[in-house]
Amino acid sequence: MSDADSKLTDSVKPMFYDPAERRIRSFVTRTGRVSEAQARAIETLGPKFCIPYQKAILDVDAVFGRHAPVVFEIGFGMGETSAKISAGMPEKNFIGVEVHTPGVGSLLKLTDEMGLSNQRIIQHDAYEVLTHMIAPASLHGIHVFFPDPWHKARHNKRRLIQGPLVALLASRLVPGGYLHCATDWEDYAVQMLEVLSAEPALENTAEGYAPRPAYRPVTKFENRGLRLGHGVWDLVFQKR
Q: Model's pTM, two decimal places?
């Protein structure tokens, strides 16, 4: 692989609400470096584990070669948590959506190294994927872990967890399916709780915030924050 190939870049950033389009967008422009290993994983493993975006409902059973409960993840970052969760629940199928190319390459590499047959990736805007590719009442779980907090007050409107997206997420869950969000920003946790509680199709599984479910591993960054006294808030809501 050439040196140029090892310096591939992409142009993405976490999701925000675009008032001009009146919907959630999953990225704004930034530059990210793709390592040689990540680029090689995309080239060699992408055809097997990546699902091309299409404006048509996805045949999930055909993609995985089996029928199993499906868990959908928005914004998996570099994929370490996703890979651990997929490895811990081999009886479920996992679809991760991420626009950040280095993250896609990283999760592809982990998927191969850990022998995960139940992990697939879509590199596209999650809102469009949910709208066009995921059938209503088809997902058994949705994970949104540590989305960009947009911590400045004037940027709060850009946060991912807002009413329009939550309504769309709820519509894609089967009855009894769950939506699990986590954040390490307290004011975002408060907003998440308000927005999720306001969605009539969902009900809280806890009195306020939920204990961290055993399937969600604690990341090294989370551990560092906990040692420094920072909080982490999990919210688990269920489709009525």
A: 0.87
